[in-house]
Each structure stands twice: as structure tokens, then as C-alpha cells.
# Entry
Amino acid sequence: MAESARIQVRGKGWTKTTTIDAKKFDVMSKALLASLTAEPLAFGKLVERVTRRLPEFEGSISWYAITCARELEVQGKLVRQEKPVRYMKASTAVSRGTVSKARAAKSAA
# Structure
């Protein structure tokens, strides 16, 4: 049986990368971005929203969500706030002043 395509996943501060199934990454990334709102969300709330969007998803939604979220953060598409940890779309974070344009541009690079 042919092995499915995999994508390398990075995370800010990670010392090594991991790989996941490219199709699962694509599905999860789209669900994550569609689930984010203008207001920062706690991870548990974000997982609830993703679960409603992907009721047939095979695998641990919380594991794939955090893994994909970290890659989306590196790509500059998602912002992870700290203390308390909350997630939001990068474009929303910049317009709200949650992160500076310089930081968002650096994340996107």
C-alpha cells in the first residue's frame, strides 16, 4: 500500500519538527481557521468548535488541532496569546492591536 503524503510541522520554540498526513493537516487547518473569531478563544473552546465542524475526523482532534495550530502560528495565519493562552486569526490580532504589525510580519516570514 502506498504511503500517503506528509507535511512537516514546525512550532515556535520547538527544537525538532514532526510530520503529519498532508490531507489531515489540510482539513484540520481549514477547520481551525474557520472556527476562529474576532475574540481570542481558549484551546478547549477552539477544539469544541473544530469537533462540530469535523464529526467524522479520524484521530485525536485535540492533538491534530494543537499540532496544526503551531504550524499555522509559524506561518503567521494564527496568533497564540500567552497568559492565558488564547488563539485568534493573525489578521484579527493585528487589527485589534493584540500584536504589532511588525510581529505579525515576522511570523509570516
